[in-house]
Every structure is written in C-alpha cells, then in structure tokens.
Specification:
Elements (H helix, E strand, L loop, with lengths): L3 E7 L4 H10 L6 E8 L6 H7 L4 E3 L8 H14 L4 E4 L8 H6 L4 E5 L11 H8 L3 E8 L9 E8 L6 H24 L3 E4 L2 E4 L16
Helix pairs in contact: 1-6
The structure holds 5-O-phosphono-beta-D-ribofuranosylamine.
Length: 217
C-alpha cells in the first residue's frame, strides 16, 4: 500500500516529531513523514528534520498581516508537498475553523492530559493543583475548539505525591512518544473511522485491567 504522506507542524523542541519520524522509518509503516513545518525559525525540532533529510519549511506567523494569510500559506505548502495527513506536535498556534474543516479527520493533535480534562496551557501545573491520581495524554482529531475532537488513543500515567511539573511532564512525554506513532499508524492504515464524532478502530482490543493509585497502603 502507498504510504500516506504526512506533515508534522511544530513550534519548538520536536520530541514528538522525532518519535513519529523514528516510527515511520520502519519498512512496514503506513505513514511517511514527508514535510515538517514550523512557525518559528528557531524551533529545535527543525534540526531533527534536516538530520533525517526531511524537507522542512519555516512559515513565521508574524510575517502575515492576518491569521488567514498564515494559514493559507500552510495550506498551500501542504498541497505543494502532496500531503494527505497532518500531525500537530507542539504547534503553538490555534488554527481557524476553516482550516480545521478543510483538513477534517486528516488533522491530528497530541495533548498532555486525559481529554476532555485539562484542555489548554499549563496542563501539568493544573493537574497537580487538582490533586488527581492519574493523568496521561491524548491523540485526537482536531476540531475548531482547542484540544477538542474525537479521541484516537489515550494513555494513563499515575501522578506521584512528590511530582513536580517537570517530573510529571517527563513521565507523560514518555507515553506521548508511544501514543502518537500508534495513532498515526491507525489513521494512515485506514483503521480509524469517525462515527458520530467518536473514533471507531477496526480490530482494536481495549485493555481489561483495573489500576488503583495509590497501588497499596
Ligand atoms: C507535548 O507535551 C505535546 O503534548 C504538547 O506540546 C508538547 C510538545 O513537545 N502539545 P515536543 O515539541 O513534541 O517535544
């Protein structure tokens, strides 16, 4: 099967981009990372792309008079590169409804919480303040609302009593790097269908386990 040409949009570090590139380097991967777009010229993730020989473009949002102009430039670049799927990976610009609609069910995002809880910024700080026992990450189809849309993959991570924002972020990031490649593979291989704004995954099994936190007293 033809591999789905996928673009990754970043603004910074690019560790999820790196995880996606590594997974897609497997000979049987259903997706190919064919383009990286950053809205910041100084995004460290751009170096991952060039090290892997993947075309990378900087489209600085500040260079456009309007948001639509910025998004049109992204859209045009995606089409020029024959892109079929788009992954947002630490892309720090909110995309307008028209753009989201144009890429409906072909536009994925990762968020470091168990959505729909803790949408938005400063996720780990708010998780710690709320005192929840579990957090995690979510890969979902993008909709017009921020961090909203049909959920493809989630992973659960325990919150420890001595966690700082940094330690929690690091624990969640580890599972992000497993979830995003899994979600992209599911979508690119055609196993994901969005029905009534919920994702159905052909042939997928759900875990049948009970986890407690604290584990014991
Ligand atoms: C990740 O935590 C992701 O969930 C969030 O932004 C962060 C990006 O990290 N949306 P990286 O640039 O992929 O390392």
């Amino acid at each position: 099967m033809e591999r789905r040409r996928t673009a990754v949009l970043i603004s910074g570090r690019g560790s999820n981009l790196q995880a996606l590139m590594e997974a897609c380097a497997a000979p049987d991967a259903s997706a190919e990372i064919a383009l990286v777009i950053s809205n910041r010229a100084d995004a460290a993730g751009l170096r991952h792309a060039s090290a892997a020989g993947i075309p990378a473009e900087t489209i600085p949002h500040g260079a456009f008079a309007t948001q639509v102009g910025f998004e049109n430039a992204i859209d045009r670049t995606l089409h020029e590169h024959g892109i079929a799927l788009v992954c947002l990976a630490g892309f720090m610009r909110v995309l307008s409804p028209w753009f989201v609609e144009r890429w409906r069910d072909r536009l994925l995002n990762i968020h470091p919480s168990l959505l729909p809880a803790f949408r938005g910024m400063d996720t780990h700080r708010r998780v710690l303040e709320a005192g929840v026992r579990f957090t995690g990450c979510t890969v979902h189809m993008v909709r017009a609302e921020v961090d909203d849309g049909p959920i493809i993959v989630q992973a659960v991570v325990p919150v420890r009593p001595d966690d700082s924002e940094e330690s929690l972020a690091a624990r969640v990031l580890e599972v992000e790097h497993r979830c995003y490649p899994l979600a992209l593979e599911l979508v690119a291989s055609g196993r994901v269908q969005v029905v009534d704004e919920r994702v159905a995954i052909a042939g997928a099994l759900a875990p049948d386990v009970l986890v407690l936190n604290p584990a014991s007293i």
